[in-house]
Amino acid sequence: MVRRVAVIGAGVGGLASVKCCLDEGLEPTCFERSEDIGGVWRYTDSVDGTRVSVYRSVITNTSKEMSCFSDFPFPEDFPNYLPHGLLLEYFRMYARHFDLLRHIRFKTTALSVRRCPDFATSGQWEVVTETDGVRESHVFDAVMVCTGHYQEPYLPLESFPGIGTRFKGQYLHSQEYRDVEPFRGKRVLVVGIGNTGGDISVELSHVAAKVFLSARSHTWVMSRVSNDGFPCDMVGTTRFNHFLDWLLPSAFTRRIRFRKFSSWFNHTNYGLASTKSSKFKVIINEELPFCLLSGTVVLKPSVKEFTESSAIFEDGTTEENIDVVLFATGYIFPFPFLEESVRSLIDDNRSLYRRIFPPQLEKPTLAIIGLVQLTGSIMVGSEMQARWVTGIFAGWNKLPPASRMMADVLKKKPPVKRNPSERENLKMSFIGYTDEIAACAGVKPSVLRLLLTDPRLALAIFFGPCTPYQYRLVGRGAWRGARDAILTQWQRTLKPLRTRVVDEDSDRSSGWCWMCLLALPVALTARFLLSKHPQLGCRPWAGPQL
Fold this sequence. Notes:
Layout: E1 4-8, H1 12-23, E2 27-31, H2 64-67, H3 84-97, E3 104-105, E4 108-115, H4 119-122, E5 125-131, E6 134-140, E7 142-145, E8 152-153, E9 170-173, E10 187-191, H5 195-204, E11 210-214, E12 219-222, H6 232-236, H7 239-247, H8 250-262, E13 281-284, H9 288-294, E14 297-300, E15 303-306, E16 311-313, E17 318-319, E18 324-327, E19 331-332, H10 340-343, E20 366-368, H11 378-394, H12 402-411, H13 420-423, H14 430-441, H15 447-453, H16 455-463, H17 482-487, H18 489-494, H19 511-530
Helix pairs in contact: 1-11, 11-14, 15-16
């Protein structure tokens, strides 16, 4: 039976894993190579190449109610979207509340994680660590790797002829970016239009002489603020919307989504995206459209090659006198401490059963936590993974046979290029994936059952935001405060905004949910009729998945 668990990394996934181990009566030891918790969210001015850190001005893309640990809400006076300092403060509060710090060994690097000689029967791992130059060897019954997918910068210089030879200016990866000062008055080319590339381009536009943003993929830009002023993820990430995505033909829902994206501004006019494209990414950025409109950021296609001082693009245009090229091209996850025979099993997260377990191992005692890209908060997904994994390690939950896990992995793994820009297209539905793992862990709430026993809560769960508290209502680890946290989530959202109250009647109540409920029979009937016409792209009728 698993008792001692090694946790590699004290970021979001590591903290959740230590806490979940303690909940299950396991004995975790967390190894963190830096001197503090927080992972990438612990900002530092220095760039030493040993750890990845957010830049100074970063703000979360997911709101506090959608991003918190499921049994530990953010303080109500915290803003809805958080700078890195407040998020790190929240992590410290979480670690203190659940007494996690005594299980973390700081300034300790995991040098190697190897299977013990008797692994086929024991499932144990030998973990070699180094602290202040002193190496130690430990034996653990299981290992949880919590280093995430922001490990090593991806800098594909071979894809940009001339950058390392002819180009005389400076080039760097976004990992090295901290603030705007080194770029003041310069002509900067940012390569890559993910969230980081968009944020940095906007920020640089305030001080740089000119900013060019090179994008090769179709990109839809969203605001954190919804049409009615609430956080966009709280309004959009609901079980009702998830149900409609299942209910309606995919082509129809994609058309609706495109129309909603372009209700803010026409992406085709800005050269960002076309409704004809089936492959696209979504980024969060309120200022980028205005920067494009005002010309402080100029959108360009992919770079074809570099000369001594200029960039030549795929459309034949050239931008001269480029001083700095900043590559916002993402990260790779090499897991250098894992033995090669194990590391080779992890091509990417699709090689893992439920994006967590290497299915080829004789014993399921290695779990990769946080190596998943969701349409919502990775914090919530990582915690749910940790809850399921520690239940398996504790022995009350089981995995299927290796043959079934391998079959599941092969079924869900279409061929795709292995680079960060392509992985962006592999983002999974936040509700779909979290529900999947929650069902495995026995903690997924039943809306239909709640409709009979607690209608008010059922409506809040189905029509309101899918906040993480929903996964603390039933099963192991149920939290008494979960119901109240769900029913008061809008109050906590409004609290930091109402520094000057002008109307007490602007709260989102559940009354509007009844109108949505009345629309369900119509939607279900439409779903049934559409299923009779496969040419519309509708999946076979299988009844409502509530």
